[in-house]
Write a structure and sequence with these properties.
Number of domains: 2
Number of helices: 5
CATH topology of the largest domain: Ubiquitin-like (UB roll)
Order of helices and strands: EEHEEEHHHH
Strand order of the largest sheet: 2-1-5-3-4
CATH architecture of the largest domain: Roll
CATH superfamily of the largest domain: Beta-grasp domain
Strand content: 15-25%
Structural class: alpha+beta
Number of strands: 5
Helix content: 25-40%
Radius of gyration: 15 Å
Length: 157
């Protein structure tokens, strides 16, 4: 199996790793970088549990080659914690009961983070559109939308 050096920034930290040319981004993050918060849900780009941010935009890591993000900034759910504190979005998901079993939560939070960076005051329809690629098998999405709305409100206060 051919390997080459992958240089990128993960959660604000520069990394240079020898990576198989056919390694998926999710496998790189979990197995090489040791960041296990990103989840494999469907193995085919259908559920969104593996969503990470690449240069602030959501990307499905289960269908992206690791080398496709060479030279770019990748953020995972672990990167949302700053100085040992959860983000406003993570706190809102906790307080508003936006996560049930929690499996989809990292992907939901990363997709929501991308939305809030681009649009700090989204409508419910804009929140739904931003999360349309993320499936939660536990909820009716009401609490998830409330969580994102609450986090947006925290950013305005």
């Amino acid at each position: 199996m051919a390997k080459s050096i992958l240089s990128l920034t993960v959660n604000a930290r520069q990394r240079d790793d020898a990576v198989a040319d056919n390694m998926l981004l999710i496998d790189y993050l979990r197995e090489v970088a040791g960041l296990t918060g990103t989840k494999m849900g469907c193995d085919g780009g259908e559920c969104g549990a593996c969503t990470v941010l690449v240069d602030d935009r959501p990307r499905l890591s289960c269908i992206s080659l690791a080398h496709s993000v060479a030279g770019r900034r990748v953020e995972t759910i672990e990167g949302a914690i700053k100085d040992g504190r959860v983000s406003d979005l993570q706190r809102a998901f906790h307080e508003k009961l936006g996560s049930q079993c929690g499996y989809c939560t990292p992907g939901m939070i990363m997709a929501s983070e991308s939305l809030l960076r681009a649009n700090p005051d989204p409508s419910d329809d804009e929140i739904r559109a931003a999360l349309s690629g993320n499936i939660c098998r536990c909820t009716g999405y009401v609490k998830i939308i409330e969580s994102v709305r609450d986090a947006a409100g925290r950013g305005r206060s």
